[in-house]
Amino acid sequence: MRIEDEIKQPTFRDEYQKAIINLVYTTGWLQLRQATAFKTFGLTLPQFNILRILRGQHPLPATVALLIDRMLDKTSNASRIVDRLEEKKLVTRTVCPANRRAVDIRITPAGLELLKTIEDSGLMEKNGTQFLTPDEARQLNVLLDKIRTEDGDGTTLHQPSCE
Amino acid sequence: MRIEDEIKQPTFRDEYQKAIINLVYTTGWLQLRQATAFKTFGLTLPQFNILRILRGQHPLPATVALLIDRMLDKTSNASRIVDRLEEKKLVTRTVCPANRRAVDIRITPAGLELLKTIEDSGLMEKNGTQFLTPDEARQLNVLLDKIRTEDGDGTTLHQPSCE
DNA sequence: CGACATTAAATGTATGTACATAAATTTGCA
DNA sequence: TGCAAATTTATGTACATACATTTAATGTCG
Q1: What ranges do the domains of chain B cover?
Q2: Which of A13, A58, A83, B71 is the most buried (most CB within 10 A)?
Q3: Which of B28, B136, B145 lies at the smallest CB-CB distance from A160?
Q4: Residue A155: left if φ>0, alpha if ψ -120 to 50, beta else—which one?
Q5: Which positions in strand C are less than 7 Å from the protein's CB atoms?
Q6: Is the entire prediction scored with pTM above 0.90?
Q7: What is the pLDDT of residues B11-36, one digit of tens each?
């Protein structure tokens, strides 16, 4: 559906204004879809992403610092997301023997099993981009990269992360 | 900068996976920039959006229901955002005389002045899309609309709203 | 009229982000 | 050696989203 109809705003100042609204709207749309899907498995999107990072390390542990680095969401709070995964017995937390400041975080067998269940469900493939041709997907990548031209202000930038 | 470099992931499964990550990343990038800018004026993005809706109604009042409808963020909580604007004396809240269930919300002169200050600052124009040509902006709109093809599940969808 | 559903807004709970600060440990250098 | 700085994680606060429930007012229909 066209964005004009989607948000019931018949006109925009120009294609630029329309594009920025369309971007934010479409990403919100995607995120809500994904979040709703993950909820049926008792996970939030950030929790799922942390679990995937931990599986990538498995059987080695990860530290909170590593999670933050991989999430690329530099300012956010991995500690509390790990809290929730620990409550659900999907990860374990033990003080790192080599450096008692650090904490070793590991995915449990239950965590691995949950990831497999989710991935086997085919959830991950229904993300909207399947309606693009390969060429259109390439075009989209070019345009998005252009929008992020001139990252000039040096502030730490956000990466909400997702499959 | 290319998304590969931005998130330091050298390869993706395909252009589709890259596109979805690029979309989420780019919108997060945009939102963080905008949120940071608005913070210098003591506002969050949702607060700014509510203020703009109220200005659109001015001098008529709006109800919470109208705000929710205009925000297009159907499930979210306009009530508490109005709380914060009221604390800052940017809006007023009075029980609607015609229907004592409803609440009339109005932007104050201070609120109108703040909006003008923000808009005069030229903040709104620096949103990334200025790096696209008009034709590219049009292309982007077409691609995003395609991604939202098949809104089939009937769930209420999200619209984080912004300029 | 009066029980009951509907509507409008507010409130409660869980989760997450952003940012500042604290607490514990380790490092490094005078 | 000893103390300050750096590192690593956790905690606190403000704000927002998502969703369920509550409260008050209004509508409806027997």
Answers
A1: 43-125
A2: B71
A3: B28
A4: beta
A5: 7-12, 15-20, 24-27
A6: no
A7: 888 999 899 888 888 888 888 888 99
